[in-house]
């Protein structure tokens, strides 16, 4: 009788663990989606947001919209058990309604540092009940940053960097302090040439010449670099004169997910070749 009870209890515990691992999850923020995939949980995802579209493993999943412009209907229509969002997600009123509907909503801090990335890995791994894989992933990311520190020591000088977003006819927007761009520059051991301004601001030729960056990084741009170099706002800078200008769109530098270290290493590889 005791053996039968033990066997039944074991089967029940196994079933409970299986059901817990089979939860339907929506991830909002490309970094969380990438981490979930890296943890081997892509099969549990039932929906993602627009910032996750670049991740091949989830390209066929329903899109719940841009993470700052979510809707209650878009999220609840997928009947998820759990929704993982970062602190960048919104509107807050939508998140409150989703939580009130009884869905497990977890808001994870989006700190643009190595510690912030590792904390996100821990949070996602805990929610998906994959602690061992989480620890393994964190060790891999930490190893990338050991390599990053070694490359920082190889810089011939402290690089001052202008990080700009191409807004087409509206010109360039420059990344100041408190932005994802500044976070990635700090992680790469680079100085933000516009760390004296908050957020993103329009770039003027006068400001660019005054800052005179050593390096220019361009994102969100379909314009060829040769044409960008001719833009009056930057053409006389040290960076353009020495051809240290780089389109970083393919690196997914601003994702702050599990591949952030590899993205920075790719940037450093280009920089050290200049």
UniProtKB/TrEMBL annotation:
Entries under InterPro entries matching the protein: ABC_Transporter_SBP, ABC_transptr_periplasmic_BD
Residue ranges of every copy of the Fe/B12 periplasmic-binding domain listed in the record: 24-274
Keywords carried by this UniProt record: Signal
Cited SUPFAM superfamilies: Helical backbone' metal receptor
UniProt superkingdom: Bacteria
Pfam families: Peripla_BP_2
Record-given protein name: ABC-type hemin transport system, periplasmic component
Record organism: Gynuella sunshinyii YC6258
């Amino acid at each position: 009788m005791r053996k039968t009870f033990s066997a039944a209890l074991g089967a029940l515990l196994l079933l409970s663990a299986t059901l817990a691992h089979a939860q339907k999850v929506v991830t909002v923020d490309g970094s969380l989606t990438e981490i979930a995939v890296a943890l081997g949980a892509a099969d549990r995802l039932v929906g993602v947001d627009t910032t996750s579209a670049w991740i091949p493993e989830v390209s066929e999943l329903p899109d719940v919209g841009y993470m700052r412009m979510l809707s209650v209907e878009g999220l609840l229509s997928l009947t998820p058990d759990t929704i993982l969002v970062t602190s960048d997600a919104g509107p807050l009123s939508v998140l409150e309604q989703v939580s009130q509907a009884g869905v497990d909503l977890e808001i994870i801090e989006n700190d643009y540092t190595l510690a912030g990335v590792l904390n996100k890995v821990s949070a996602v791994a805990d929610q998906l009940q994959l602690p061992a894989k989480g620890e393994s992933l964190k060790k891999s990311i930490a190893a990338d940053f050991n390599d990053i520190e070694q490359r920082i020591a190889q810089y011939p000088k402290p690089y001052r960097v202008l990080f700009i977003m191409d807004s087409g006819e509206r010109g360039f927007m420059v990344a100041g302090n408190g932005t994802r761009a500044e976070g990635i520059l700090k992680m790469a051991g680079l100085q933000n040439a516009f760390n004296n301004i908050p957020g993103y601001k329009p770039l003027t030729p006068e400001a660019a010449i005054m800052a005179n960056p050593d390096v220019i990084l361009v994102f969100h741009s379909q314009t060829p670099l040769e044409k960008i170099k001719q833009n009056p706002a930057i053409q006389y800078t040290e960076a353009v004169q020495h051809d240290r200008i780089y389109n970083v769109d393919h690196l997914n530098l601003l994702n702050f997910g599990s591949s952030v270290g590899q993205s920075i290493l790719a940037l450093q590889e280009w920089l050290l070749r200049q």
